[in-house]
Design brief:
215 residues, alpha/beta, globular
Length: 215
């Protein structure tokens, strides 16, 4: 019997790359992938992926305008939900980017990197946004990390970073001028600041782990 995954389409930037990666990860795994903003399709799906790219205020506004917001909140209460990039930031309480409230699903805040004038170990200046590969530390085991070695490299593009109110919700950490949370997890929710869809084989493994995760 086919199972379904809904990738929420509310008009924001990384939808195509995320959906293509999920489709690739789902090949031969018995899943149908729907790219949709239809609340009923989201409600009917076994699991949900929430992408996001760009300004968080725009993402929050477009999610509400699409009609999918309530269905996403319902999914977050009842079924496996994966957030990606700004899709992770949206799960927290608040972002200082344009003073934007989030969905309030994971206690925490989103802040801007303040690295002006700071130098990296090689003498180069820190650049904002962080753009490129960086190591991800896994502070604790999680099924979505299955088979992915600690300190693996993933691809980042972001100017804002998350701080969780409770350390147990931090599922991944990265150093870029400071140590920050780059993956969050609570109950049936998992989300990453980095882009698994741009992170080669290990990113695909993360998507595949999500498809088979049974929280």
């Amino acid at each position: 019997m086919s199972r379904s995954v809904a990738v929420v389409d509310y008009g924001m930037g990384n939808l195509r790359s995320v959906s293509q990666a999920v489709i690739h990860a789902a090949e031969g795994q018995g899943f149908d992938v729907a790219i949709t903003c239809d609340p009923e399709v989201i409600r009917a799906a076994e699991r949900v992926v929430l992408p996001g790219q760009g300004a968080m205020r725009d993402c929050m506004a477009e999610l509400a305008a699409s009609g999918a917001k309530e269905a996403v909140l319902e999914a977050a209460a009842t079924k496996p939900l994966l957030g990606v990039c700004v899709g992770m930031q949206m799960l927290l309480d608040h972002s200082e980017e344009q003073d934007t409230p989030g969905l309030g699903l994971i206690p925490g805040r989103v802040q801007r990197f303040r690295l002006e004038g700071r130098l990296q170990e090689d003498g180069s200046r820190y650049k904002v946004p962080q753009m490129g590969w960086n190591r991800v530390h896994q502070p604790r085991p999680h099924p979505v990390w299955a088979g992915i070695p600690d300190e693996s490299w993933f691809y980042f593009v972001h100017s804002f970073y998350a701080t969780t109110a409770l350390p147990e919700h931090s599922a991944g950490e990265t150093d870029y001028g400071l140590r920050f949370t780059c993956a969050v997890a609570r109950d049936n929710i998992f989300a990453t600041q980095f882009h698994p869809e741009k992170s080669a084989a290990l990113g695909l493994a993360l998507y595949r782990n999500f498809l088979h995760w049974k929280p």
